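Please produce the structure of this protein holding S-adenosylmethionine.
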Amino acid sequence: MNKPDLITINDAVKWASNYTNKSVTASNINYLIQYALIDKIITNGMTYISKDELKKYYDRNKIERVWREKLGDDLNWKLSFDNLKESDTTKHVHRLHPYKGKFIPQLVNYFIDSNIDEFKKEVYFKKDDLILDPFCGSGTTLVQANELGINALGIDISDFNTIISNSKIANINLEKLEIILKELTDKLKNYIKINYEFEDELNKRLLEFNN
Ligand SMILES: C[S@@+](CC[C@H](N)C(=O)[O-])C[C@H]1O[C@@H](n2cnc3c(N)ncnc32)[C@H](O)[C@@H]1O
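Below is the modeled complex.
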């Protein structure tokens, strides 16, 4: 090997997890190779990648780092939440609908929970208080308030957004839900069966016709 910075995939996983402070897996690294985002070098049957190239890839994607260089340190960078994975920022009900204009729940939590720090110097809400979000969108604030035992009231001009919000905070009867899901699953199975029969017959007839 003539490049001193070449590392194996396993080492790349360790290095990248440490560097990004996120759990980077071998399949994440393989994805980068597969989509030519970084090069792979095969030597003696072993796959290596360049650490320098990997670093450049993660630096390009480090939103916080890029903005920090432009805007300086006079901002609360803790609120960039750059260390969170997509699955954290869309946790549980927040992924029910891919509503693009939503807050990330951790940001809402920061402002409504009972922690303070050098930036948030007082606690604004306590358990059983009532938060009003007059532009509630997909209901992030309502859900996070409920999680903390704070009541919440949401308003939105968009009917569709109120449906998203309401479905996230509705008090669901799990027994009823199970019955409804079973009915739906049975209907779907039946639908698929009928459609397969129809498609099989259609393909058979088409073949006859074409012949
Ligand atoms: C950026 S979104 C809010 C997203 C929300 N914070 C979330 O996490 O899902 C702004 C919302 O304001 C609503 N809106 C705009 N004008 C409004 C008005 N005059 N009255 C009520 N809602 C309004 C929009 O329909 C939209 O859902």
